[in-house]
Amino acid sequence: MRPRLPVLHLTTGLPGTGKTTLARQIEHRDNAIRLTPDEWMQPLFGESDAGGRRDILEGRLVWVAYRALLSASDAILDFGCWSPDERYAVRAIAALAGGTFALHYLTLEERERRRRAEHRWRTVPHETFEMSEADHDRFLAAYQVPTEHEMSYAALPPPPAPFGSWTAWAADRWPTLPDLGEPAPTATGISRADLSDPALRTFLQAHLDELEPTAPPESRHALDVERLGGEGIRLFVCRVAGEIVATGALARLGAGHEEIKSMRVAPAARGRGHGRSMLAFLLADADNRGVERLSLETGSMDFFAPARRLYVAAGFTPTGPFASYVADPNSCFLTRLTARPARP
Questions:
Q1: Torsion angle defined by CA atoms of residues 147, 153, 157 and 163, in that order, rounded to the nearest 10 degrees
Q2: Residue 184 domain-assigned?
Q3: I need a surface site. Which of 115, 296, 318, 325 has the fewest CB within 10 A?
Q4: Strand, helix or coil at 188?
Q5: Nearest to 143 by CA among 99, 113, 180
Q6: H-only helix segments in the chain
Q7: Residue 21 and residue 17: Cα distance in Å, rounded?
Q8: pTM attached to this predicted model
Q9: Kind of pairing, strands 7-12 and 100-105?
């Protein structure tokens, strides 16, 4: 099944490493929109940079990729992105659009890389630009290889000062890209939970109270506050104007496998998409950390029908009991693979 979360692919590496070849393969495999700057710069300006016009073009292409993800389409930025800051900014934009991010780093032995770049110039000059040995030397010195930390999709670092967000940094880096604006903490936003917050503890207790009449104790598996603070559990809250409207958590089961827990939307906030937003956030969080599979248990009763519809719409499918669960007529078990494509 095709993942429901759109993917923003970014190819990175020096000229001649095969970025565009890979981008075309992804384009045809996933029916994705491919955005390769050289294919625009050559017919428009006949130069690789043209007095700074490449940055102008790239800003528009990043914006197109962002809009593609908003419409649930995959996109490929075949850019190179030689600095980690550029790559982090693109990843932040993918998350902002509700999608996932795949970084494809390509490298070759240096002599072979230069040979391939020269061969491409001689065979398809309309797709690339001529590069001298001095150009290659300069490119090699400028390129910053992705670290293992970056390739592991670890948490994003803060943007460089004085920028308050990666979207603001990106708008400065690419002048034609507007500041797409990350959600402010006082507006709708999702962040890690603070279990010392009395309002959160009240919200979580209300979850347990709401579930109590739905099934006998042995069929209720929601975690209390103390267990949500345990090792291997990541709890998140969604707030609107400072008020908690939803929670969701990921609990580690084993290598590459996590469970969705504590999904709840406040009764007064239901029907406004907060559950979908939280689920999409959890999927992206798991995907960016390299989690391969997510599973969950929910009730089989009518009370849980909206939750089951939400999970099925996100690509979850029925499965048997997992981890320490046992077969129970009061339970439904669902699972799905994450959307993160395998790196080449």
A1: 100
A2: no
A3: 318
A4: coil
A5: 113
A6: 19-30, 38-45, 53-70, 84-96, 110-123, 133-142, 148-151, 166-173, 198-211, 225-228, 274-288, 305-313
A7: 9
A8: 0.54
A9: parallel
Q: Are 169 and 90 in contact (CB under 8 A)?
A: no
Q: CA torsion, points 34, 151, 67, 56, in degrees to nearest 10?
A: -70
Q: Measured at the alpha carbon of residue 183, what is the angle toward residues 6 and 62, in degrees to the nearest 5? A: 45
**Rounded distance, CA 310 to CA 131, Å?**
52
Report if residue 2 sits inside a domain: no
Last residue of a domain, one of 114, 138, 173: 173
List the CATH number of the domain containing 80. Answer: 3.40.50.300
Question: Residue 183 domain-assigned?
Answer: no
182 domain-assigned: no
Per-residue pLDDT at 272: 73
Q: Are 81 and 10 within 8 A, CB to CB?
A: yes
Structure tokens at 324: 């320490």
If one counts the domains in the chain, the total is 2
Q: Are residues 159 and 205 in the same domain?
A: no
Contact status, residue 101 vs residue 10, Cβ threshold 8 Å: yes
Single-letter amino acid code for the residue at 73: S
Could you tell me the residue range of the domain that residue 25 belongs to? Answer: 7-173
CA-CA distance, 128 to 124, in Å (whole number)? Answer: 7
> Residue 241's domain is classified under what CATH number?
3.40.630.30
Enter the tokens of residue 174.
């690419």
The rounded distance, in Å, linking the Cα atoms of 143 and 80 is: 9
Q: How far is CA 97 from the centre of its chain?
A: 9
196 and 88, same structural domain?
A: no
Distance CA 20, CA 110 (A): 18
